[in-house]
Amino acid sequence: MNAKVESTALNRPVTRQTFDEVLVPTYAPAAMVPVRGAGLDLWDQNGKHYLDFTSGIAVAALGHCNPIVVEALTRQANTLWHLGNGYTNEPVLRLALALTEATFADRAFFCNSGAEANEAALKLARKHAHSKFGAHKSRIISCYQSFHGRTLFTVSVGGQSKYTEGFEPLPPSIDHITYNDIESARAAIGDDVCAVIVEPLQGEGGVVPGDKAFLQELRDLCNKTGALLIFDEVQSGMGRTGELFHYMSYGITPDILTSAKALGNGFPVAAMLTTHELAATLSVGSHGTTYGGNPMAATVALTVLETINQPAFLARVKEAGAKLRATLEKVVADYPQVFSQVRGAGLLLGVVTSDAWKGRSKDIQKAAEANGMMVLIAGMDVVRMAPALIVSDEQIAEADRILRVSLDGLLQAA
């Protein structure tokens, strides 16, 4: 009887309207409901095909249902699922070794999301400063228009007031500077600062690349004041810009790095990476998470890491990124009334709307979707492209075609 009930529940018809009836309304998802994916191809409930240039907000870096990842997950699902943090497991040990060997870091802490990774990084920075310098060194510096997660701590650190309204009082001793503004950084970062957290490439804030001089100044100011430099690479990491992590493009090394999103290709997993010295600040019981580093997540993440962190794979990401940028720059040149510029790095690119089209990125997104292509926005003035890293030249050409058809339709309707 129970089996029959469960089977009925698993197959119960649901629609987009079901979302409005039973889910907390924290999102406003599209009208169509995707049901199946393969690579960069998606199909909705009606069988309509879409070219996915979102990869789940830079998550499915190897594409939907990648056979290599599916095989790894299936194998581990038939071996060992979960133990709890009273025990370790072989997959997480292998993943930690691989990440530390591939980066500046000596130690890894695993959790489930970018917000949790940033929470761990900020807690580590506060605790390190308290133990080494005293409680007065507790201020955290972040950038306006940054995004570091949705916990109360991380959303307060993120520099977008629209996400903190109504959740006051917010955690204290958090200040914001203007991204890429060296003088703003110099004015804010003093001896009472324990951490500076920054995205080397701002994602949600509009796909804005960090200036090397700005990031280097943050590094120098942290060295001078004893603050820790945290690079949030939740969106820019795991091969997205053509390097395993974007800090490698600049030659500027943080004290702590956070990774999530593409690390699991859609399976929830995140990492905070740091040095031996800093990791020693967090003693047994000082921080933790129930699911972090479980065998299934670790197996998937290691498979993703080993696939992406290959010279030929990363070289192809750079090649595809250059191809997509050139394609989008041609679109900007051909539609100057709609777009003004392309910015970003690798396969994380933003097309900025013109003054006449400010506030209309959502309209462009909806038009593209109607024509069979999924794109992102980054604020109301930027159309964001973050296709899977396995995107082909043919798919870039198809994206170009659909985007142009969509723009033509919008212009004709204007």
From TrEMBL:
Known EC number: 2.6.1.11
UniProt modified residues of type N6-(pyridoxal phosphate)lysine: K261
Record-linked HAMAP family: ArgD_aminotrans_3
Subunit structure: Homodimer.
Swiss-Prot/TrEMBL GO biological process terms: L-arginine biosynthetic process
Keyword Transmembrane: no
Protein name listed in UniProt: Acetylornithine aminotransferase
Cofactor mode of binding and number, as noted: Binds 1 pyridoxal phosphate per subunit.
Species classification: Bacteria, Pseudomonadati, Pseudomonadota, Betaproteobacteria, Burkholderiales
Pathway: Amine and polyamine biosynthesis; ectoine biosynthesis; L-ectoine from L-aspartate 4-semialdehyde: step 1/3; Amino-acid biosynthesis; L-arginine biosynthesis; N(2)-acetyl-L-ornithine from L-glutamate: step 4/4
Residues that hold N(2)-acetyl-L-ornithine according to the record: R150, T289
Reactions catalysed according to its record: N(2)-acetyl-L-ornithine + 2-oxoglutarate = N-acetyl-L-glutamate 5-semialdehyde + L-glutamate
Cited PANTHER family: AMINOTRANSFERASE CLASS III, SUCCINYLORNITHINE TRANSAMINASE
SUPFAM superfamilies on file: PLP-dependent transferases
Cofactor(s) recorded in Swiss-Prot or TrEMBL: pyridoxal 5'-phosphate
Localisation: Cytoplasm
